[in-house]
Design a protein that fits this description.
Elements: H1 2-19, E1 25-29, H2 33-38, E2 42-50, E3 53-59, E4 64-73, E5 81-82, E6 88-89, E7 99-109
């Protein structure tokens, strides 16, 4: 089942690339992935180009959408402090990372002829 979904996703992306024009573009939408699924979109493929980023591709009969989910560090680690000899030192126990999940969806809009 997963192989079939992946094959369909790749075919859909290739079809979109062949039929797309230079003016076609992804346009952000305020809709969530749940909203899109409720409108009849279905999940076609998931790509994870990095451990912090996943991109979900969805389609319905006439449209393509994508939703990206990204983990972002909210607080940078503190600057290393010099020890008694002046050598920079960083103690990882002093840093507690705070992550934020950003989710954005967009739809592929076709250029008008």
């Amino acid at each position: 089942m997963m192989t079939r979904a992946l094959a369909v996703g790749i075919a859909l992306l290739n079809l979109g690339a062949v039929q797309s024009r230079a003016a076609d573009q992804w346009q952000a939408t305020s809709q969530s992935m749940t909203d899109l699924l409720g409108e009849g979109y279905r999940l076609v493929s998931v790509a994870a180009p990095t451990p912090q980023l996943r991109v979900f591709f969805l389609s319905n009969a006439a449209s393509v959408a994508k939703c990206s989910e990204e983990q972002v560090l909210k607080n940078p680690p503190p600057a290393p402090r010099p020890d008694e000899k002046g050598v920079p030192k960083f103690d990882p126990r002093e840093f507690v990372p705070q992550l934020e999940t950003k989710i954005e969806c967009s739809k592929l809009t076709k250029a008008k002829p």
